[in-house]
Amino acid sequence: MKYISIFLSLFFIASCGQLPKETSRWNSLALKEIINEYHQYQKALSPFSQPGVADNNAKLPDLSPDTLLKNYQGKKKIYQKLVKIDPESLSQNDQINWSVLTYKIKNQLDNYVNKEHYMPLTAESGFHVGISWISKRVQFKVEQDYQDYLKRMAALPKYFDQQMAWMDLGIKEGITQPAVVLIGFEDSIKAYIKEDVTDSGYYQPFKKMPEHFDAKLTAELRAKAQQVIRDKVITSYQKYYDYMVNQYQPNGRKNIAANSLPNGENYYKNRVEHYTTLPMSADDVYQKGLEEVARIRAEMEDIITSVNYQGDFASFVEFLRTDPQFYAQTPEELLKEASFIAKKMDAELPRLFKTLPRTPYGVMAVPANIAPKYTTGRYAGPSRDDQPGNYWVNTYRLDRRPLYVLEALTLHEAVPGHHLQGSLAKEMKNVPEFRNNTYISAFGEGWGLYSEFLGLEAGFYQDPYSNFGRLTYEMWRACRLVVDTGMHSKGWSRDQAMSFLADNTALSLHNVKTEIDRYISWPGQALSYKIGELTIKKLRKKAEDTLGATFDLREFHDEILKNGSMPLSMLEQVINQYISDQQLLSKG
Q1: Could you state, in order of their start, the residue ranges of all structural domains in the chain?
Q2: Domain 2-114 belongs to what architecture?
Q3: What confidence score (pLDDT) does residue 48 get?
């Protein structure tokens, strides 16, 4: 009788609609506890996660096998708790929290299982570049800040040795970057090996020191810095340079495909799902790419006809690649043009967005040490609250940096693209800390490509060549769907992929090579852009069609961006709810 009574009571509560609310409350509390556990765990993992905490500013991450295994096991326990929660029982905000955190931890676990730490580099960059920014993570105000930084630099030999130890394991197990994408990679290491240590980027904090330091302290710190950079920093880079040239490059993988790696089929399937955030197969992505390539190609052909060009697509592209009128003569000219475009878009933002960030941004050249193998432009967010964001423009080989694509590039990397989206995310209030700094590629890169399209509504691309540049950038992202899946799952060669990209876009041949090598060394990431953009456009069309005259573009953009980065499946739920809410409001 006792159990029958309990059952009837629960049935009565459920029929009155009270049980779901109680379940939601308990799941929300459980999620809050898991988020706090994750936050505390993350802070303990890396000294970079808690700047200013005692001793942390003097340490570098520990990459030992025991530490990485322990980190994997700790996160796995958190993840197992997380997936036991039914997200449908949560509020929308908690659903986003659950969705983002599940996505984030799953990828961290997958990276360990996939042995991503065996390959701490891509064709365009690597750990030796990332670690060089340690001075940007802290403010230099008191002596202890400098002493901590000196200790961090002194710890670089161990950090480099740990990375190379993992790369050695990669060589033994056949988990390396392909040899073909590593040609010239050593130059990015050599750039850090300075004869004059005061020319090293690591010495930068010692060039202008606080005025309240007396002359003796300043001289002592500078002398110590020069010694540490000479004996620890440069020797680490030299050792890595020798290792790269004599050990790693000769043992690079011969096959470029991700599915040629141990467990490669599952690995690439995992990367496709991670970077699209949708249940898509490589075949699905490949077919969507072919459809988009055909659609965009027709629009490009229309522009060629409109300018009365007497020739075919290939000759028109060759004209764009070689005519001096389309290229800056100096790095300063290119940077100034990029800055002008960015400032012009700044003035258009209020009519496209209700909410704008407080964080400013600057325009700067891609650092010379990585420019030769680096992409044409990129956004670098601030490391601290007292720093701006930066739109990086590659000024290496100006004859390969056409001005007709600069509008699209600028709108993508600066505003209304990555700077706007990333800054609004960092400035979100009343959300867990991980929401402020999580970047989900399908969301962020999808928004970046959508931002290029927004330029049409903001009055950009008035010149047909510039509009062709916009289309060539959209085509570039559509081609990525084809060449990435082609190389990693369908047996395409590097030359085949380069030809496909060169034949369908007006990208310079230097950019074509650089980009294809990037896709080879970073499987799946190139799929994010088009899949994300197509999803945002689909959601916008649904909102426009459903809401009709009550559709507000500024409100729609705010709804897309106000919750920060999230998987596209979660974004669809958010926008569908927004549409329903707007319908109710319009009905009064």
Answers
A1: 2-114, 127-254, 272-533
A2: Up-down Bundle (1.20)
A3: 80
